[in-house]
Amino acid sequence: MRSLDTKSGLLVAPLLHNSSCTKVHNHITAGGVVQAAFILILSTGIFLANLLVILVVNSRRYSKYIHQQVSHIL
């Protein structure tokens, strides 16, 4: 019977150099503030638009214009 050559070693992942972790970005810039404000305004607008659609769909005033949709299970 032939014996199997077993190596008792741990598998170690190769070292990776991530360039995004080498620079420290702890300061706040004007561009970062503008970008954060833009994303906040855009997210708030999307949230309010969705809320408006939900309120219109559920209101009694517009319910006669919105008909029940047929749903198909594929």
Automatic annotation (TrEMBL):
Membrane-crossing residue ranges in chain numbering? 37-57
User: What is the protein name given in its UniProt record?
Assistant: Trace amine-associated receptor
Q: Which organism is it from?
A: Rhynocoris fuscipes
Q: Which UniProt keywords apply?
A: Membrane, Transmembrane, Transmembrane helix
